[in-house]
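C-alpha cells incoming
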C-alpha cells in the first residue's frame, strides 16, 4: 500500500477486517476477520499497484482494504459452506 509502509498496512488491515466484519455481519470470529482484513488490505494494495492506481493516505487505503476484506470474507463464507 503506497505511502503507509508495512506497519501502516497491518494497522489498516486490522481496521479493515473489523469494519468488514460489521458490514458483512460475519460470525466466524474476530481473529479470522482481522486476518482476512490484513490479507484483503495487502491484496488490494497489490492489485491497485498492478492496475497503476496508487491510493494515497490512510483513508483511501482503509476504504480499499475494507473492500478487499469484504470480498475475502464473502469468498471465505462460500468455501466454508
Amino acid at each position: 500500500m503506497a505511502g503507509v509502509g508495512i506497519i501502516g498496512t497491518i494497522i489498516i488491515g486490522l481496521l479493515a477486517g473489523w469494519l468488514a466484519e460489521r458490514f458483512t455481519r460475519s460470525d466466524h470470529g474476530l481473529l479470522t476477520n482481522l486476518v482476512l482484513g490484513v490479507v484483503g488490505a495487502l491484496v488490494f494494495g497489490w492489485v491497485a499497484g498492478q492496475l497503476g492506481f496508487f491510493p494515497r493516505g490512510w483513508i483511501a487505503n482503509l476504504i480499499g482494504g475494507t473492500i478487499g476484506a469484504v470480498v475475502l470474507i464473502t469468498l471465505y463464507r462460500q468455501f466454508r459452506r
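note: The radius of gyration is 12 Å.
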